[in-house]
Write a structure and sequence with these properties.
The protein is α+β, with helices and mostly antiparallel strands and 101 residues long. β2 and β3 form a beta hairpin. The chain is globular, with a radius of gyration of 16 Å. It has a four-stranded mixed beta sheet with strand order 1-2-3-4, with no helix packed on it. The longest helix has 12 residues. Helix content is 17%, strand content 22%. The protein has two domains: 35 residues, no CATH class; 61 residues. It starts with 17 loop residues before the first helix and ends in a 16-residue tail after the last strand. Bound molecules: zinc ion (ZN).
């Protein structure tokens, strides 16, 4: 879900709106969608976590999606630094194409 960047330096840093973040975790605890991770962009940067990203890493094993230059990269906050994940695009099958026994 989108959230405002509430950092006092929004061009340099990001801080997820805590109201949105807390609401997402609350919904997850109440059987809503799980919080798999977070996304943000590096408008003038690279697809790798920045030094600031690394400073704010919590090791919670969640995925960080970083968008830069029209691409996206996925990283797992492993607790021992960010580990790049591989990904592939998967099209959802229409329900009538799913075979059941
Ligand atoms: Zn970043």
């Amino acid at each position: 879900m989108p959230a405002a960047n509430v950092s006092d330096q929004p061009r340099l840093r990001f801080e997820i709106d805590p109201v949105v973040l807390l609401a997402a975790h609350k919904a997850a605890r109440e059987d809503g969608p799980k919080v798999l991770g977070y996304y943000h962009s590096h408008p003038l940067g690279h697809l790798v976590p920045s030094a600031t990203d690394c400073e704010h890493s919590t090791g919670d094993l969640r995925i960080w999606a970083i968008i830069a230059g029209g691409q996206v990269a996925f990283w797992r906050d492993s607790g021992k630094g960010f580990v790049e994940l591989t990904c592939r695009m998967v099209e959802e099958c229409p329900a009538d194409h799913i075979k059941t026994k």
